[in-house]
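In this notebook, the sequence line spells out the residues, with the fold written below as integer tokens. This is how one looks.
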Amino acid sequence: MFVYPKHYDVIVIGAGHAGIEAAMAASRLGCETLMLTQNLDSVGQMSCNPAIGGQAKGQIVREIDALGGLMGLNTDATSIQFRMLNSSKGPSVRSPRAQCDKKAYQFRAKAVLERQPHLDLKQGNVTRILTEDGRACGIETNLGLRVMGRSIVITTGTFMRGLLHVGLQNQSGGRMGDSFSTLSDSLRDLGFEVGRFKTGTPCRLAGRTIDFSKCQRQDGDEPPLPFSHIPEELTEARHDIFTLNHWKDGMFHVEQLPCWITSTNTKTHDLIRSNLDKSPLYAGRIEGVGPRYCPSIEDKVVRFAEKPSHQLFLEPEGLHTEEYYVNGVSTSLPMEVQYAFIRSIPGLENAEIMRPGYAVEYDYCPPTQLHPTLETKQVAHLYFAGQINGTSGYEEAGAQGLMAGANAALKVLDKPALVLSRADAYIGVLIDDLVTKGTQEPYRMFTSRAEHRLHLRQDNADLRLTPIAERHGLVSGHRAEKLQAKIASLARLREYANVTHFSGGKIVQWLRRPQFAHADLPEGLTAPFAPDLWEAIEIELKYAGYISRQEAAIEKLRRSEEKLIPAHLDYAVIPSLRAETRQKLASIRPATFRQAARISGVTPADLALLSVYLEKK
């Protein structure tokens, strides 16, 4: 057994989207951090869709960026198409999405990590978590290497006992071409409950074999809206082989590629139905529960039998590859069935499959075993983030990784933890849902999950979260200075709007102008303002009544959240509390009355009894 001579403050296991944000957050706080992954050539790999953002997910990415994370800026640097979803609808559901060059995204992320101060990258397959006196203290790999650390963050994705399915054939692995991890055995030994989920991915096609003339073209937005609040960091001076896009003269310069739309048909569905006996999902070969909101094409055909077709999106995987991702046909059917049904689709009659679709089963740990900081209740200084908590999606993983990495470092530094409420961010909604309710299927974020979604818009993520990040030491310098300048500019625009009764409709006219030179400004303003500032003021004016009511509800929520519940309260001694309530409160260990109220089966009467008991004590 070799014990590595360097001891770390924080050790991050895994180098996917959760691992990247965890390692970056911990190192930005000044902690000596180690990132360990099975394969350093797949750091930041987009295992499924080569895209970032989408409904509610785009809001999360802007929140990650506002907290100093990497995902937003890395997306801006390496994307090949930008679109604002729901742009014709209200601001609460507008969500940015970007199609990425998946290899550029991956390579640039690794390059940034390698240059990050206080961060080491190493290759290794972790098989055991070391503990001492009830707290995590290090890791052990399959090669007998031990590394000691004061906090551990596990971000294993689909690799814990990963099992890949194509038809009735299966093989071990967390991703096609990669191995798997036995780390969940160590977690069971430590007393953690472990469950089983499954996910899947579509086949990839050779672009030169697709007849795009039979497909509908879908272009990106012009001008493209970047994810990061500091896109000017992407200057031409820093332009390299992995940074495709840059900021110049106040404009975001992107070489955008189109996506394409086609659809399945009755022939496609008949082929799938006639081969369901070869599907591991319908043959009983798969134990895990799959994602409700991203079903396989087999599930779509069975569950929505009345629909004659399903829309598919053909998405390019990069500037320098011919591979196309077929969004909408996630499948684990045999290769010959995939070949047949793909060729029944308009535009794909002669398509060649470069990589088959497959399903993957993996172990996860029900997230009710976590505190709101994402530290485990079973073992101190041990944190979980990403798919190990039962979530799906790069964005949900990245958000958890940032929060877990930051809190792992803050605990080592003996500083206050970073916890976001449901009123602060979609990230707060995500984590509160997970640690309070748990999840019976892979969790995906939607705007409908947030009760304050008009407040949690994509356009104000920096105003909501960057001051919090600055207080915790996650951001400083240019980002903080830019926020202060934005706040000052918004104050001037509000003042002008109040004095002149400048209407929302008039602001829309100014917003749509391509540039804002001095001569273009309304009378009384003497300096140009960026379009995003005009949009912010427009939203404030148009939705003032709704926003004020929501702010009042948020203030009421904050007052309830301030009512804390002792972490080690013995619920068994509280008189008249129902047995079900005792069991659920003891299991979840809610930190506040607000969190307790969201636990299934806990009634207002239960909370009243709890409140009376605590007041007496």
In short: Confidence is low (pLDDT under 50) at residues 511-520. The radius of gyration is 25 Å.
